[in-house]
Amino acid sequence: MAAETTSPIAGPATSAPPEGTPLPGTPASPALPADRFLNRELSWLDFNARVLELAEDESMPLLERVKFLAIFAGNLDEFYMVRIAGLKRRQSTGLTVRSPDGLTIREQLARITARTQELVHRHALAFEQDIAPRLEAEGIRIVHWADLAESETRRLREYFRDQVFPVLTPLAVDPAHPFPYISGLSLNLAVSVRDPETGAPRFARLKVPNNVPRFVAVGPPDSAMFLPLEELIAAHLSALFPGLDVVDHHLFRVTRNADVEVEEDRDEDLLQALERELARRRFGPAVRLEVTETMDPQILGVLVSELEVDPQDVVTVPGLLDLSALWALYALDRPELKDEPFVPATHPRLSEGETPKSVFATLREGDVLVHHPYHSFATSVQRFIEQAAADPHVLAIKQTLYRTSGDSPIVTALIEAAEAGKQVVVLVEVKARFDEEANISWARSLERAGCHVVYGLVGLKTHCKTALVVRRENGVIRRYVHIGTGNYNPKTARLYEDLGILTADPRVGADLTDLFNVLTGYSRQTSYRQLMVAPHGVRSGLLEKIRREARHAAEGRPAGIRIKVNSLVDERLIDGLYEASRAGVPVELFIRGICALRPGVPGMSEDIRVRSIVGRFLEHSRVMSFANGGEPEWWIGSADLMHRNLDRRVEVLLRVCDDTAQRELQGVFDAAMAPGVRSWELGPDGTWVRSGTDDYQARLMRAVTENAG
């Protein structure tokens, strides 16, 4: 079994400092102020606040607002499971560690708690006071038990008896019954009961089952009236504690550390180590306790003590807990309350009318830049792999897989290629957070089919999105390549904005061949023709290009930098952008999420502009552009500008040389940064201000539809 690959490129990455701390050998320039960085965790909360603003936006279709409420809740869950868990783990070491903006971990956690409580309160009120009444006006109601008619309660009592009661397990808490384990993200009822004969109080915990719908339908099948499952259970507590008086009940929810840390040993099977850590994940320490506003202080004290959470980590929520469950309402068949459906178009170069073209023949004529979800993933990237799997002239397919869908047509095509006798090499990154178990399953399926599977590199995650097809044409070997910014996942390709290049450029094919030799063997390759590859080449390559722009500006030649990423955190690159700005280089940053750079500060970043667009599709692509004295360079790839991407992952940035593709990338940037676009602008004080009404994503949808027509 091909379990893991040990490679020289893993060496430097394993010694990289923890994310969120300044890198060694990069002292702050005396000319730059010490407060030049924004806090990354608070910046992430600002991003989630932008998601919340979309939920609060009355101009959005009603169920789209519900969707953004659910996204906000899910985002916050993951933030606590990973980022807050990481801060707490570092705090437990006892070392005094400060973030680049100068805050200790305790100070960061205090500010995060205050900001989180504010956002959670806004989030709950947006639903309770604004969206829920609007839903009710549209016939979609979430009701309380006390609101129900007798006929409705009778029907629900039968449902409880048949579907819910059998899966409930009340757990007593007393000297003979220790406090039970509370699983992460589960809803729970803390129940107070009393012995009617002795008056002795008792305490029990009751888990709200997660394999029963959270919102129970009330009324006929076509009705859109729902009762929260926890209310149905609460109305029947006497059936669960016969012979006792039910005094009170309170809802709570626990979030646990879910950030798996695999102690990678070069002599141990990586899959075994990972599976062991996944088993431990569910028992991670609690990092957040969510309670309702009506929670009894005495019961809260018991929970805080037994769960061993800091009182600072208690989040009080008005109304319903866990609004990520609102996805169930969004799933209702009410198209008039949602965005109009959008059908991705086939890239015009990949079809003739309704007839698909050979991807290989098309690429021999020139590169194709695909922009998802505007261009169909199924008729471009997926078709590329499927045609390669079926083509008798294809000798080999090599691909990296970081995340894919549960019924992945990409994996199916790779299996069919292997069964047809082609050489298929797949690097499946089994350390992809929250997809570890799915990726282990895919890896084993691929291996059983005869694919050569590599399970990642010791010390690094392989995050790059690459596919290489080797084809014999008239006795000559030719290589075809896809390099993209997003995962090989047809489902997220309809929701995430991403870019990809399909090319037959022999330089890119040679580069990717070299990279796969690094990933699967013992190659020491560190330099490439058309690629920048982390952990060795991306930060240094970008810094060199940023400094080159400063030189061009100083010498009066065209200069300019445009960067689109999910997150900008790396201090070296931020300082490089500050220096470029001071040299007169205009810098435009299109950043969806975290930004630790302060734009618009006189004498430091007055030529830097930062814009964020949050909308129907998740902006996910990474693009870098440099004016380069009048000879522009464009790069796309998988790397965000964060420590983990630059130091602890295999990432790829591809230089885009095709003139048409460069013009298309420039058009994307021009449209996003145009005046009047609905977006948020970052100010020097770290605040984001919303402005504009022009929907940038809607404009791109119209353009691709018109072009396809």
From TrEMBL:
Sequence segments annotated as region (Disordered): 1-32
Domain Polyphosphate kinase C-terminal: 358-524, 531-695
Residue stretches making up the Polyphosphate kinase middle domain: 153-329
GO cellular component, one term: polyphosphate kinase complex
Domain Polyphosphate kinase N-terminal: 37-143
Cofactors that this protein relies on: Mg(2+)
Protein name: Polyphosphate kinase
UniProt organism field: Geodermatophilus obscurus
